[in-house]
Every structure is written in C-alpha cells, then in structure tokens.
Amino acid sequence: MDGTKKKVTMADIAERLGISKNSVSLALRGLRGVGDDLRRRISETAAEMGYGGAARPDALRDACLAVVIPAYLQDDIFFYSEVLWAIDGEAKAHGASAVHIGVTAEMEANCELPAMPRGLRVIGILIVGVFSGKYVERLKEAGPPLLSVDIMYVGLPYVGSSNLMGGATAARRLIGLGHREIGFIGPIYSAVSVYERWCGFGLAMREAGLDPGNGYNILGGQTFKLFDSEEVLEPYVRKIGKFPTAWFCAGDRIAIAMIHLLSRLGLRVPDDVSVMGFDDILAAQMVLPRLTTIRTDRKLMGRLSADYFFREENGGDAGTPLGRIVPFELVERESVKRLC
C-alpha cells in the first residue's frame, strides 16, 4: 500500500466546507466574489488541511506582521482603517497577528527605527502611508522584508490602487459630460500614487485635445501637505482668477474640503462647479451633494498585502518582486453634472 500522503486540492477544501470549488479558488487567490467570513473559513481550512504546503495556524502562533504607520494617519477613520482591518483579519486567518506601530514626525526626522514587538517573530513589515525615501531606506535595515501598501517606493514590493487608469477614467467621465475646463487638485510631489493619478488625468485630457496644464491645477510644492482641509486649500484657490467647470481631486478628503470651501465662497456644487474625488470613503456618501468618485477595493488591498508574507513564509514565492493593483470602479453621485 502506498503510504504517500495525498496532496490536498481545492476540491478537497470545497468538500470539507460544503461549498463550490470556485468559491475556494476566489478566496485563495484574493479575488472578489466571496464574503469576508467565508474567506477566513476557507483560509483557515486550507492551512489546517495543509493545502499547498501551508502551515497549520498554530505553527504561526508566534508570528506577526508589523504595520508601520506615520503620525498623520493616527486618527484616520476613512481610507486606511478598512485596509488595516483587512490586514488584521488576514493575519488572524493564518493563525498569526498584526501589530500596529506608530512613527512620530520626530522619529522620522531623526531616522529612528520603531521598536519591533517583543516575544513575537516578525515575518514582515508593512509600510502604510507616506514616509520620506530616507526613512524607508532606514526601515530596510530593521531586518524583516518590507512591503508598501497603497504608496509606491522604488525597490519595494507593493499593493496599491489603480491610480493611472483611475485618474484617466475620472477625467474621461468629466470630458464625456461636456466639461472642457477641468482642474486637478492633489499634492503630486508628496506621493507617487497622487502623481500617477495626475498622469492619468493628463493622459485623458491630451486624448481629448485639452491642455492639462491649464492654470486650474493645485499641485502643491516639495513640502508634504495633505490638502484635506479648507485652510490648506483656500490660499491656492484664491490665487485662481477664473474657476474651471470641474475639478478632479486626487482624494475624497480633498474633494470634500473643496466642496465646503466652494460653498463658503458662495459657489454651488455642482451647479457652478462640479467636484469629483478618488477612493470612495464613507464620508463621500455623507457630504452634500454626495460625491462622485473612483472606488478602490480597500479590503482586497489589505488582504493581498498581508497574504504576501504568509505565502513567502510558506515558500510560495519568497523573494520575488510584487506589484499588485486592486480593481476600481466609477461611482456616480450628485457632485458632478452634465454640461451638454
């Protein structure tokens, strides 16, 4: 009798859980179409059964992911909170944990490494948010492999939004609604993701024979600014003599601040100026008028980011470069109107 242990297949996992093989495939590949609870059950069952050489959950009991977060995101309840919850959930599904570690502005300025969790085996560091290139290089010296979430850094694997095509889709929609005078708002020198959205915007404008450098843009300078408040935006807006018919903002928080500022200046959105955002955070549905925006799959972003380290831990694709782009979709609400 052959004593070789039978290789576990997706069909075996599906049979154990009483679900379809397609659901198992979607979950293990990090694709949409499976609920969070079922995805966790599938991941836990796959690890328990030894699918693909995956370790049992208890084998990763002392393993953790160190999630490094800059000070300016400590109160974020919009974009990154959903990403962080997904990272935590994926870590737990593998029997490990995720530890959030804050980095103050002073620590970053002094290139001071954050303290790693004691008593746990850090199998990877996830960088969330914007850090200086110098500090990212310092983080590389911490030891464990790094991956950046949403923000691209040269030489690091990353999982992020479809910034270029999302920006192009936003601009094309505004153009399709008859807008020809369109401005872009976003600190393009602060983050590659914002610069990519600017490039997508410029691509669509040039396709339509329009000049993206039309004097309506607010791009910021070399100093890092979030552009997510009326106070920051107002000096830039007041320098613009004539307003465009539409603004595409590189983030929903920028767009919401812009709607409030324009209202205070006596302008109506979208009757006088249309405003469009990017990300589809919860507040996009709460502002009036509700925000037209580009929705990013933040849960998938978090799951893929965490899963990279567990596949690497289990010998899946250790050391291979990773650049994963999550899907996006255009969400149309009331902050944009048709001109023709």
Question: What are the key terms here?
Answer:
3-stranded parallel β-sheet; single chain; alpha/beta; 340 residues
Description:
The chain is of the alpha/beta class and 340 residues long. The protein has helices spanning 10-17, 21-28, 36-49, 79-93, 105-109, 133-140, 163-176, 192-207, 230-239, 252-264, 298-313; strands spanning 63-70, 97-103, 121-128, 146-149, 158-160, 182-185, 246-249, 274-276, 293-296, 323-325, 328-331. The chain is globular, with a radius of gyration of 22 Å.
Write the layout of secondary structure elements.
Blueprint lengths: L9 H8 L3 H8 L7 H14 L13 E8 L8 H15 L3 E7 L1 H5 L11 E8 L4 H8 L5 E4 L8 E3 L2 H14 L5 E4 L6 H16 L22 H10 L6 E4 L2 H13 L9 E3 L16 E4 L1 H16 L9 E3 L2 E4 L9
Parallel strand pairs: 1-2, 1-3, 3-4, 4-5, 5-10, 6-7, 7-8
Antiparallel strand pairs: 9-11
Helix pairs in contact: 1-2, 1-3, 3-4, 4-11, 7-8
Oligomeric nature of the chains? single chain
Structural class: alpha/beta
Strand content: 15-25%
Give the CA-CA distance, first to last residue. 77 Å
Overall geometric form: globular
Number of helical segments with 4 or more residues: 11
Number of strands: 11
The neighbouring-strand order within the major sheet is 2-1-3-4-5-10
Q: Are there runs of 5+ residues with pLDDT below 50, and where?
A: 53-57, 315-319
Helix content: 25-40%
Give the overall average pLDDT: 87
Largest sheet: 6 strands, parallel
Gyration radius, rounded: 22 Å
The helix-strand sequence is HHHEHEHEHEEHEHHEHEEHEE
